[in-house]
Amino acid sequence: MVERMTAHRKLLADYAESGSEEAFRELVAAYIGLVHGSAMRLVNGQSQLAEDIAQTVFSDLARKAKTLSPDVMIGGWLHRRTCYAAATAMRGERRRLIREREALEMNSLSADDALASVAPVLDEAINQLADEDREAITLRFFERFNLRAIGEAMGTTEAAAQKRVARALEKLRGLLVRRGVVLSATGLALAVGSASATAAPAGLAMTISTAALTSAPAGAGFTWTTLKIMALTKLKITLIAVAVALVAAGTATTVVINRDPSYTPPPHPDPQKIMYEAAADTRAGRYKDALAKNIWYRNNALRYQPSLLGVRDSFALMYWSELAGKHPPAMKKLKAIRADAEKQVRGNKAGEQAEVSAFLTVLSINDGLKEEQKNVELFKWLDTHNSTAATRVYPATEQNLIHAGEYALCGRYMDADNSYQRILDSYQQMKKMPGSASNPQLMDFAVKNFSNQSATLVAVLAINNRNDEADQVASKAAREIHNPEFATLLAEAKNGKVPARWP
């Protein structure tokens, strides 16, 4: 076991010193099960999200290899990075699961039963242990070292290692009790041991190591593709925010598609899991399966979880658009959804909530199909026929209108304070992302994105002779970023010069 640990450290050193891709691939193959298994538990079995987290973790390893200590416990380091990468995405969902989980006595549980009980909160609890306790858990249960090897690795005896593992388990059990999960020591050992046996998908190690090596020279754990997705996600979050308002009002619209008999969901289906499965099917070339699941999600998600309205009308349609570009039947059905939704927009009575929800559906499909000009055309129709609905959907359409040069139209609906707050919130969220402080590429993206968006807002206000508001936004933005380039950009914007579109 100690020899294996030494060999893994040597692989890391080879990569750090000479950039050996072969060494890095072997390292990923050795630890992919640990990272992917932890990620799967952290994201409640959402396979695509778990693979994205694994990608980030190993990209971080490639980037930080030269700075790691020669004595680093690689498994413990990777586990902690996995927890950090998953925390933001799943924190809210995990809290909900914790609140709903009843405390159960698990003395007689099987390993599978114990794991099912503890999985949603296991990795978070492990991550809160002290360094030595966390290393004892990862060495014993995730890397499967025997007690003698653990003792040697931690500079102690086999007997001391046994006591350390037992103490670490007891501390872990205490942390789980606070989260409403009650397990005996035996039950916990079964659960953690079962968790560590989770196998990563075949070929994932090769995919991950290739992508991580590709991204490493850029000096950041986030690839440029990730940053572009983040920019797209800002619009999707706006769509969700508008849709949530519809849920609060108790009304929404659903364009029902003929059910596809080729997909039968499991008992008590999880709509979000099915959405991610559909995305995974698309990427794996299982287009018919992906289409059937997308149809099921569109027709049924809100029956199980009404709060998914925003997700259904944004992210789910984004995934469907990806499928549509590869599978003509999916494109045909997606365009049918858009046509029906657009008919609702143009046909409903003024001010009805259903019209707003239908507009968001059209907006997401057009974005996914890269037909943003159609959003502008539909908003102009609302501007003429239903200004109440236009006011409600404007935040989600603002970027399309600005990119189309419809500055006067923006001037009629733009709320300067709200628009600036959305830009600021996005900037602050990027700065708070795990590892952002040590990630120059991410920080550079955040600064440039904030600079461009806020200066654009100032320019549009100035063009519409809303100069006092333009000055106020410029003053607020200048307090966030202090550099001559941004000062010049804001000065030009106050004179009505709109910055070039970025990114």
Write up this protein.
By secondary structure, the protein is an all-alpha fold. The chain has 3 domains: 2-218, no CATH class; 232-394, no CATH class; 414-503, no CATH class. The chain is built from 24 helices and no strands. Helix 17 runs antiparallel to helix 18. It is globular, with a radius of gyration of 26 Å. 45% of the residues are buried.
Notable features of this structure?
single chain, 503 residues, mainly alpha, 0% strand
- Average pLDDT figure: 77
Computed over alpha carbons, the radius of gyration is 26 Å
Give the helix/strand class.
mainly alpha
> Biggest β-sheet: count, sense, barrel?
none
Distance between the termini: 49 Å
Number of domains: 3
Shape: globular
Question: In terms of per-residue confidence, which ranges show pLDDT below 50 for 5 or more consecutive residues?
Answer: 95-115, 217-237, 246-256
Spell out the helices and strands N to C. Answer: HHHHHHHHHHHHHHHHHHHHHHHH
Helix content: over 70%
Please indicate the percent range of residues in DSSP E strands (runs of 2 or more).
under 5%
Q: Number of helical runs?
A: 24
Strand runs, count: 0
Summarize the structure.
This protein is an all-alpha fold. The chain has 24 helices and no strands.
Produce the secondary structure layout.
Elements: H1 2-18, H2 21-42, H3 47-64, H4 74-100, H5 111-127, H6 131-142, H7 147-153, H8 158-177, H9 185-195, H10 204-215, H11 224-249, H12 271-283, H13 287-304, H14 309-312, H15 315-324, H16 328-347, H17 353-368, H18 373-385, H19 387-403, H20 407-413, H21 416-432, H22 440-463, H23 467-480, H24 484-494
Helix pairs in contact: 1-2, 2-3, 2-4, 2-10, 3-4, 3-10, 4-5, 5-9, 6-8, 7-8, 11-17, 11-19, 12-13, 12-15, 13-15, 15-16, 15-17, 16-17, 17-18, 17-19, 18-19, 19-20, 21-22, 21-23, 22-23, 22-24, 23-24
